Amino acid sequence: MMIIISHELVKPSSPCPSHLKTYNLSGLDLRSIHEYMPLILYYPNNETCSLTPDDKVKVMKKSLSEVLTRYYPFAGSLHTPTSTYIDCNDEGAVFVEAKHDSQMNMLQHISEDNDTVGHLFVDGMYWPNSPYTERLLGIQVNHFACGGITVAISLQHKVGDGCTLGSFVSHWASVAHYGSTDHKEVLSLDPYFVQSPATTNFIPLEISDLLPKRPNAVTRKFMFPNTKLSDLKNKVVTEGGSTLSINNPTRVEVLTSLLYKTVAVATTPRASSFKPYFLLSAANIRNKFVPELPQTTVGNYNTGMLVTSRHESETSLSVLVSKIRKEKIKLERLQNVQLVQHREHSMLLSFGNEDAENVVNRSFLTSSLCGFPYYKVDFGWGNPAVSSMTLRHANRAGCYLIDTPNGDGIEAWVTLDTQDMERFQNDKELLSFCQN
After folding, report:
1. Residue 329 to residues 17, 233, 276, 320: CA-CA distances in angstroms?
2. CB 52: neighbour CB atoms within 10 A?
3. What's the whole-model pTM score?
4. Within the chain, which residues score under 50 in pLDDT?
5. Angle between helices 317-330 and 251-266 (to 10 degrees)
6. Which of 83, 93, 222, 280 is the most buried (most CB within 10 A)?
7. What is the 3-state secondary structure (H, E, C) of 54-118?
8. Domains, the chain
9. Where are the alpha helices (DSSP H) in 202-288?
């Protein structure tokens, strides 16, 4: 059972300057539909920490108030789902404190398909088709009978991507840990803002928004140790031989290829001819711009890489890794927002020329959070034992990758239709690289 202890708005410690009252969303922000990125961090009871549960919440609220003065748009309002700007009115972020009579370790192992996970988040900023709200940021601190807590953060996607969320949470935790934004030990993660011109033009949706949500989707976690990923790299290089254009593929490249190949096999009915299959991977492009943007730049500075497999032979691991790397090379040309928008418009047109049934049923979305510091978010009582970008709300065929807590591998959180998942999770090649 859950009991809400408090429900309030945490306001910035200093008012937003008058010249910053309107924050225009960029063309890349406006691509996104109105949905939230939900991140949840699990903190076991730390007996060496002298802070009481009440003390911890006070620390989090005070530091959040200070950090919101720098992340000033997060305390503002998005008055309608189609607004092209944020009203930086200092109304604040939603902050909820809740108490649960259950043990936290029970939740750490619950499937994302279990609705219990959704109750850890603020005001429906998690569920599919969540109700519209003007608030951009929601935080819920959950206390458990064992003394552990979870911190569930929901950030409106229109104001930032996974990189933005990682920078914000890391900065907030650092300020909480050291007590002041000016402390010498606080991480130098100050947000960087690009001033976008006001726009009233129609902005097309992302390709992912054209793909339907799947009501029968299930999500499962798979763990791939670095030792197995090294074996997978060697297999890709050996398989590709002289035709492989990459001598040293990355962990993410080979794992993405393996997951995509397995999904393509799992979703192809037996005795059926192969139909085109599509891999759409998200890529952070802050370092592609001229001049290069800091990784702390707030906004949706990402784009999709599209790989198409028209024949079964194009689902071999070596072919897929080569295609992914070629798409990465193309990103070097994306030196400003206009070039990104032009490229995405071309991708949308290419999707429009495909058979609609293929696009709907044979597309796999992937995103990598590897390298993001989600497991180092220490508010002053240690690092989280588990970190999850809870994406059940997406309900689309796809996955996201995240480093394991100790960095010795990658976790893949995969969402598929129930029948497809049954075939996927029993694939022999996949299981040979996966830790049970």
Report:
1. 41, 20, 23, 14
2. 9
3. 0.90
4. 393
5. 120
6. 93
7. HHHHHHHHHHHHHHHCCCHHHHCECCCCCCCEEECCCCCEEEEEEEECCCHHHHHCCCCCCHHHH
8. 2-178 (3.30.559.10), 207-432 (3.30.559.10)
9. 226-240, 251-266
